[in-house]
Fold:
Amino acid sequence: MKVTGALALLRALEHEGVEVIFGIPGGASMPIYDPLVDGSSIRHILCRHEQGAGHAAEGYAWATGRVGVCMATSGPGGTNLVTPIADAKMDSVPIVAITGQVPTPVVGNDAFQEADITGITMPITKHNFLVKDPALIPETVREAFHIASTGRPGPVLIDLPKDVLLSETTWSWPERINLPGYKPTTKGNQRQVGEAVKLIMAAERPVLYVGGGVIKADAHAELAKLATVGRLPVVTTLMARGAFPDSHELCLGMPGMHGNYTAVTSIQKADVLVALGARFDDRVTGKLAAFAPQAKVIHVDIDPAEIGKNRVADVPIVGDCRDVIAKLAAELDARQHEAGGVPDRSAWLGQLVDWQRRFPYRYDQQPDGPLKPQYCVERLREQSDADTIVVAGVGQHQMYASQYWHFEHPRHWINSGGLGTMGFAVPAALGAKVGQPGKRVLAIDGDGCFQMTAQELATSTTEKIPFITAILNNGYLGMVRQWQELFFAERYSGVYLDPDVPDYVKLAEAYGAVGLRADDPGEVDAVIEKAFSVEDRSVVIDFRVDPREMVFPMVPAGASNDDIILDPEGATPTSDPAEAPIV
Amino acid sequence: MSNGSGGGTLHTISVLVEDKPGVLTRVAGLFSARGFNIDSLAVGPTESSGLSRMTIVINVDTKPLEQITKQLNKLINVIKILEHEPGSAVERELMLVKVRASGDDRARVMEIAEVFRVNIVDVTASTLTLEATGKPDKLEALLSLLDDFGIVELSRTGRIALGRGDRGIKERVLRAAND
Structure:
């Protein structure tokens, strides 16, 4: 069958099971849009900015586990995708980005809307392709989806010059994938599993340090088995919230810079740390040399480059978390049977419970005092079911959401972790809702973040993709303000946004969404109830929160996790610039 | 590129890659993105069509070297990486050097060329151009002698290497992360 390159692309995407593309057309990518008129099983969702399209593809991938697809034209279309692609790289999100390119005869001539997008995205993609022959489009698409979704997932970009899209080729779907240099190790080495179980059996103070890889590998059931079989306490990183239910007695919640005392300190005191799909990120470890100083480390990851990158592993295991955790659980179960049961660690578990009781997350909401952001998150949580998908951007609101929400299931928490991309939440919520139309999607956002990508509310209205955005509006770039208060002697610089600009209620209405506002604690419940009663449109809630509120606990950047600051009283502001955090 | 900067030791690695557009950029870009300096890099075709071989000399400690080889391995177009232990590989480099050689110096330069068994490939009234092949230390020794006469210009290919013994790079097992 003779087809154009553009039609070959569309057919190939259909073969890959793509149901939706988030995109914006332009000169170079127009040939792809033409066959869409004749009908396709693929829905194209017209976004308002390519960055929005990219984050929507990410949100879709986070929520479904399938590959998200975004599409843009050449030049600025492609460069606007750079941020979501970099975000997907850092958080191992499987997306395929398709870009139009200027025709091959003028590539390199500084043609209109030309940018070397494969060159630009080389360091931020898992792989990318420039296709110069329409006959290669099907196999390129197949390889791109294979690379994006297997091993350690990540973004793949396919750049398609306009003449390649317009020229004819014979359609054929490749039988096999030919990637001789790409063979991820998925099966964990059984001997190493045995070594790991030996360490776990002998441990007096074990902790499972669970990262996003467990969710990527759909290994939550295996993790639950491992934790319960061995009665092993679990911390879930920002990327792994929901991989293990917060309601479980063995769940200690989030570790790291803004983690709770028990999660942070359990790692500091652990004698065996089992890292599962986690990468010892600086936001978790604090000062690396002082991180988990007594612990022997078992490190399970599908990416060999993560093992030993930041922390030497005593027992490294390369493999897919689902395979390796299942093996660990089975082996541990067998060894415990031989040994006559689970080793007695009641002192350790008792210590953890004691810490949890003494050092919970804390805030103070006075009935007639300023509205606290944590209170808003708690009230949203109390009025939601555990099936709600929560999406956040980056900053204080993200930390409050991760701290105060109770995550019970994987893929119900979506945020920008590694890259820390402001503006992630609104478009990612849009994508998540497309992937999970039957679930309520709630973006908990900051006012700074919201303004970076709010235009996707238009997409929400015109494409009928309703979700709720709760803005914790403190009128500031709050996290930067917090650091200036704590580490720059309260010298506020470039952080005031003004809570009244824009008027978020009017802005929501202008976009065809419902706009609501709560100024005082007493109004919060009614506003949430009203927001949750709207089904057919998006809702924006403007929570006017206390700009002085700060995220605690906090481990200052570069400090040891032992120096965790529990509350504002424990914070000792410093005016010495040399003491200021580095990152 | 740099000339032996950094406090580590020189390591020679061979990287077998698919001969695809952009692969050199991917490899070189990875080094700069991860903050490593390349001392030399040589690329050329191999015994298999569609495959190229890069020989890269870098100046790093062992631990960062392990990280860089792991990161290189993640590049889709990289088939195989081999780090040559000192003495385990035949390493050669080709160099062309144009030296000032007039008057009495001419005979002295020619004498050095003979001792080092290098060819004189171009002659002018005031210069001689030498073609030298050999191990890196031989070339360094030659250069230090020629330096006194005045080197007009110099071009080096960068090091290439093959492991000693009867096996090729494809049959060698890379150190696995599990070991």
